[in-house]
Amino acid sequence: MSGRRVALVGGGLSVFGVRAATWGELVQEAGRALFARLPELAGKDVDSLFVGAAQPERFAFQSHVAPLAAELLGLRPWKVVQRTELACASGQSAIRSAYAAIAAGLSDVAVAVGVEKMNLPSMAEANTSMADVLDRPWDGVQGATAPPFFAMCAQRHMKEFGTTPEQMARVSLKNHAFANSNPTAQFYEKRFTLEKLQKLPMVAPPLRLGDCSSMTDGAGAVLLVGEELARRYTDTPAWIAGTAQSTDFHNLANLPSLTEWGALRRAGQELYRTSGLGPGDIDFAELHDCFTISEIIEYEDLGFCPKGSGGRFIEEGESELGGRVPVNPRGGLLGCGHPLGATGIAQAVEVLDQFQSRVPPARRVAGAEVAMVHNLSGSANVHSLMLYRRGN
Amino acid sequence: MAATASSPAQRPEVSSTQEARTGASPPQGAGGEPPQRTPFLLDFYPLEDAHHTRISRFFDELRAGRFVTTWCPRDQKLLWPPRVVCPDCHGEDLSWKELPRSGHLYAFSAVLAGAPLGMESQVPFVVGLVELQGVPLRIFSRIAPATYDRLEIGDPVELETYPVPGDRVFFRFRPTSPR
């Protein structure tokens, strides 16, 4: 990592769920939460705004959303104002772009907002928009949305490595249990048992309802600043200690493997190489559990456990509090819901909240100093990673 | 420099070993009614004719019962989906190659809920990755008619074409040894 150091110093979230609120109202809720947390922050100090939004054109019939969000937040950015789109990783893309702008000296004080309004009067229309994330005229047209794609990953992982539906259900159980201590989570009040999860209806076999994250409305906002400004806002910032991204091709025919995500391995190796840290240094990780099988494959390709043993990793409690790498103490996408643009922002807020000991004991990773955030997008062909280190 | 569909010199040519077969009839619209045009932003199927795409040849061949894609002679590589430029060497000199119509299931699932607009009436439906016989290609496709519980990895499938609204045609794979 070269250039100026960048700090994450504050964050705020809307409640996630099936919300009686519009796209713009969600943005306002997140912005209000950010400003409430940072009384020192004045709108006039924010020189840049990055808006992570996957599909406002189709979910909210609205484009040119960065200036719209600026208006809703009362900001008049004069350095950078733009939207970032990377499907399910749009929120993290906003943070990475803000990071790049600040590290380069273009921006000093940047807000990254992430938002998605996914629950529409017609959910079939919403599902249509989810099917254009993959290669629409070749794969989407055949019925390729996320559930059947990740179901095929699960089917192959079960065949190649003996992973079981119960191991997958355990991922869901863990993340839903964490979500029970997160009041912004979509499933905050919903209790599950392993038995109950394994009896939920199939969505795309072998994936049941509890193996899939939800269509969720939600927004989040964070503040990132150059190193010399960090202490103005907090005594305990989260320093960006690394970031990496890697890509495989888009059409499903051109994806090398369903069970070994090469782009994730490469991104992980690059993150470890550039930060000088390894899998053993990660105190907790916010991983992209859009489906239970995703989290299992991520354990493996990030080097938390050997290839093929992700199912045992969850079974043996290695991703629980007190395990080798606690994963998704926020509640994950499974427990919190997955508003595409907001997810990456909410994960970053969790990192800061953990570092600042602002989360309840039921999900607190005691003494956490280093945290990883991961998002995948599309057919798991793009992987985006960030590494944060607690400032003292 | 952009080649246009109307400049034959720039158009990928079908190699001589794959001359058109005769006898395949064009697909009929459902019940002979005038085709209902889906609003473009909700229409999954590509626009297939030469006014809209430079790979209209793919759909013409499909209509005639042949499954083809582009081939880069310089890289000796099949390109899927059909391209107008080789993504590897950026050459434009592509030819068309016929693909095998048979293959087997590499992976599959079924959509039981959450189908897009226009596909809800087809729920439940099976989809899968089909490993084509003898060529290094795994193509994602609808698997029909099929029941998820009766399929296994490795089951043989065969290509078939079907008509699509707007006088278009598309492809899917049919299991050939129903259990």
Q: SSE layout and pairings?
A:
The complex is a heterodimer of chains A (392) and B (179).
Chain A: E1 6-13, H1 23-37, E2 48-52, H2 56-59, H3 65-73, E3 80-84, H4 90-103, E4 109-116, H5 123-130, H6 146-161, H7 165-179, H8 194-197, E5 202-204, E6 207-208, E7 218-226, H9 230-233, E8 238-247, H10 262-275, E9 284-286, H11 292-301, H12 310-315, H13 332-336, H14 340-355, E10 370-377, E11 382-390
Parallel strand pairs in A: 2-3, 2-4, 9-10
Antiparallel strand pairs in A: 1-7, 1-8, 4-7, 5-6, 8-11, 10-11
Chain B: E1 13-14, H1 56-63, E2 68-72, E3 77-79, E4 95-98, E5 102-111, E6 125-132, E7 138-143, E8 156-164, E9 168-175
Parallel strand pairs in B: 1-4
Antiparallel strand pairs in B: 2-3, 2-4, 5-6, 5-8, 6-7, 8-9
Can you give keywords for this protein?
heterodimer; A: Peroxisomal Thiolase, Chain A, domain 1; 2 domains; 9-stranded mixed β-sheet; two-stranded antiparallel sheet; 14 helices; 18% strand; globular; B: 179 residues; OB fold (Dihydrolipoamide Acetyltransferase, E2P); 5-stranded antiparallel β-sheet; 4% helix
What features would you describe in this structure?
The complex is a heterodimer of chains A (392) and B (179). Helices cover 36% and strands 18% of the residues of chain A. Chain A has 14 helices and 11 strands. A 9-stranded mixed sheet of chain A has the order 3-2-4-7-1-8-11-10-9, with helices on both faces. Chain A has a two-stranded antiparallel ribbon with strand order 5-6. Chain A is globular and about 55 Å long. Chain A is α/β, with parallel strands linked by helices and 392 residues long. Chain A has helices at residues 23-37, 56-59, 65-73, 90-103, 123-130, 146-161, 165-179, 194-197, 230-233, 262-275, 292-301, 310-315, 332-336, 340-355; strands spanning 6-13, 48-52, 80-84, 109-116, 202-204, 207-208, 218-226, 238-247, 284-286, 370-377, 382-390. In chain A, helix 1 (23-37) crosses helix 3, helix 4 (90-103) packs across helix 14 (340-355) and helix 7 (165-179) packs across helix 11. Chain A folds into 2 domains: 6-121 and 216-238, 3-Layer(aba) Sandwich (Peroxisomal Thiolase, Chain A, domain 1), CATH 3.40.47.10; 143-183 and 191-212 and 240-390, Thiolase/Chalcone synthase (Peroxisomal Thiolase, Chain A, domain 1). The model of chain A has no long low-confidence stretch (mean pLDDT 97). The two termini of chain A are 20 Å apart. Chain B is mainly beta. Chain B folds into 2 domains: 45-99, no CATH class; 100-179, OB fold (Dihydrolipoamide Acetyltransferase, E2P) (Beta Barrel). Chain B contains 1 helix and 9 strands; from the N terminus they run E-H-E-E-E-E-E-E-E-E. In chain B, strand 8 (156-164) and strand 9 form a beta hairpin. The longest helix of chain B is centred in the first third of the chain and has 8 residues, at 56-63. Chain B is globular, with a radius of gyration of 17 Å. The N and C termini of chain B lie far apart (53 Å). Mean pLDDT of chain B is 84; it is low at 1-34. Chain A binds chain B through residues 58, 122-125, 127-128, 130-131, 135-145, 147-148, 151-153, 155-156, 159, 201-207, 251-254, 258, and chain B through 41-42, 44-46, 80-81, 106-120, 122, 125, 127-129, 137-142, 148, 153, 170, 172.
